[in-house]
Amino acid sequence: MIEARNLVKQFRDKKRGMVCAVDHVSFSCRPGEIYGLLGANGAGKTTTLRILSTILTPTEGTAIVNGYDVTREPQKIRSCVGFLSTATALYGRLSAFEMVEYFGRLHGLDETTIRRRIDAIFERLEMNDFRDRRCDRLSTGMKQKVSIARTLVHDPAVMIFDEPTVGLDVMAARTIVGFIRECRDMGKTVIFSTHVMSEVEKLCDHIGIIHGGKLMAEGTLAGLRQRFNLQDLEDIFVTVVES
Amino acid sequence: MSLRNIGIVYRKELIDSLRDRRTVISMVAVPLLLMPLLTIGAGVVLMQQVGRAMEEVPKVMILGGRDSPNLRAQLEHLKAVQIVPEKSDYAQEISNKQIRAAVDIPKDFDAKLAAGQPMTVKIYMYEGEIKSGFGADRLQKFFQQLRDRTVHNNLETRKLPETFVRPFDIREQNVAPPEKVGGAVLGGLVPYFVILLCLTGAMYPAMDLTAGEKERGTMETILCSPISRTHLVLGKFLMVLTASLATAVLSLISMAVSFGVGKKMLLDMVQGAADTALQITITGKAIISIFFIVLPLAVFFSAALLAISVFAKSFKEAQSYISPLMIVVVLPAVAAMLPGVEMNTALALVPVLNTSLICKEIITGTYHWKYIALIFMSSSIYAAIAIAIAVKLFQREDVLFRT
Questions:
Q1: Last residue of a domain, one of A121, A155, A189
Q2: Which of B119, B125, B107, B169 is nearest to B146 (CA)?
Q3: Domain count across chain A
């Protein structure tokens, strides 16, 4: 379960002064659901998700992730969250196995559990052919699989995806989309940010449209279509943003 | 504080760094190659150059002296020099290294010498040019011997004792043992290189583990793991310290071996007639003492470099911050080599300079325990402050996500 309560994040910018990247954002996402955060570049998606994964602390407000408060128990949250974005790269000089093993250790798992989990994940994602190959010698698709394995090694209850398909080719993007769907089917709480309308239409149970740091509209795809009397999500998005 | 977590980060960083060619070069290859090159290589080249210069029979020119056939005959019979015909542009020829030196014989030299009249013999040479120096030396030696012979003959003719012109002798007596004399010459160089290599050994890993991580996008990956940022920075710090100490230890070992081998080789080359500079002996006690006194400085360097590098957005930016730091470290390390700079309580508190000065003393076998304790303590305090700053910077979002 994720519950964002009046989240605010302000930054000091040399040129623009005080900038409000996230402005009183509230929403919730239940286990077994995918919540899609839809917004243009600079809308505040990444900052919101970084707050939820406790990489950043909110200026005001809070969020409850899997029962823990982001402002008070960030380490407990990081233990039950899997965070994946195009910015979360791999250690190039470690092998695929070592990379996942390292994160298993950081999550406090014992060596037997790590090995068992890695064996299961590598088998399911068909990664055994390149398990001992250095990450900097892997293809983009292989790297994505290693990143997925890295987020899954501690079997998190909450998955946070920040524009996970940006810059990926069709095949690599499909792997990610399939993985997100699998996470929902496993009963995990999934939050997902993107500016690709088709991905939102395909995946999300709930959609939040974010613009200028504010959550402008929220609901199911059907609910949003009914409310704005429009079928195409892109038209709905433009109407919300321009309003 | 979880040592397990710090250990996990340290182990990963160690594996990661040892697979990086650039880290291995700065940590292992540079100290292992630099010391033998500096000691044996430079020593051998220097000895060969000096040997070659000494073997050469220098070409010298006699200016004037046609009215003094006796002197000219003696000069022309000298085997140590080769006389070339007189030319007016002798200065130019010395500069162009066509001849090594020239001697200007005063008018009526033979006659004036016999009459006991005062005169000055001028020897022209190119200052700083070793072969020209040898040429001038040989001429000077000849004229000194001639003067001594003349004085001796004059005294004998007048039946006067030698003490008439030389009532007493002056002799300096050295009380310092030979290793201390050698240590004073070479001792300043040793800490300079150890300190410098300690810094350069830590430099690359510090940048790679912080700014490099930001650039490669792995910083965000590690920040979303449950490890605390304090454990993360301490694990990274330990890796940087390992690199710094490995560089220092390897350079110390390499230096001890190089001095041992180099000394033997150079002594063989000069057939035992070694300069006191070669009498330097680096003892095991000195090496261990230097290691312990350099330890807090390595901690200080590692933490300071980590703190500076984490502030940078990219590897390149980190390099531009750290390069000027080299000068800040080199200056006090060089200052310690200057003659006359001696340890006192105030200098014992100046980072880098204090370690450099005390190492110089340790090399020469002097152990001022009061200063050693003071330097160890002050360096440890600076190191603790640098670690605290690095930990603090790792907690700051505006530093970690600087755009």
A1: A155
A2: B119
A3: 2
**Domain shared by A204 and A130, yes or no:** no
Tell me, yes or no, whether A162 and A243 share the same domain: yes
Q: How far apart are CA B48 and CA B98, in angstroms?
A: 21
Residue A172 lies in a domain: no
Look up residue A78 and give its amino acid: R
Contact B16 A93 (CB under 8 A): yes
* Same domain for A237 and A181: yes
Residue A216's nearest CA partner among A203, A207, A226 is: A207
Question: Is A171 among the domain residues?
Answer: no
Which sign does the torsion angle of CA B93, B98, B100, B106 carry? negative
Q: Give the residue numbers spanning the domain of A49.
A: 1-80+158-166+177-243
Question: Please, which residues 368-397 of chain B have a Cβ atom closer than 8 Å to chain A?
Answer: 397
Q: Is residue A40 part of a domain?
A: yes
Q: Are residues A209 and A151 in the same domain?
A: no
Tell me: do A68 and A162 sit in the same domain: yes
Measure the CA–CA gap between B298 and B198, rounded to whole angstroms.
6
Domains of chain B: 3-43+177-400 (no CATH), 53-164 (3.40.190)
Q: Are B78 and B119 in contact (CB under 8 A)?
A: no
- Structural domain includes residue A241: yes
**Best residue in B2, B210, B220, B396 to probe A by mutation, most A CBs within 10 Å?**
B220
What pLDDT tens digit does each residue of chain B (403 aa) get?
688 999 999 999 999 999 988 888 888 888 888 777 877 777 778 778 788 878 888 999 999 888 888 888 888 888 888 998 888 889 999 999 889 999 999 999 998 888 888 899 999 999 888 889 889 999 999 999 999 999 998 899 888 888 888 888 898 887 776 656 655 556 667 778 888 888 988 999 999 999 999 998 899 899 989 999 999 999 999 999 999 999 888 887 887 787 777 767 666 665 544 455 555 566 778 888 888 888 999 999 999 999 999 989 888 999 999 988 888 888 888 887 777 778 888 888 888 888 888 888 887 778 888 899 999 999 999 999 999 999 999 989 888 887 6
Residue B14 contacts A, CB cutoff 8 Å: no
Q: Which residues of B171-185 are buried (b: 16+ CB within 10 A; e: fewer)?
A: eeeeeeeebbbbbbb
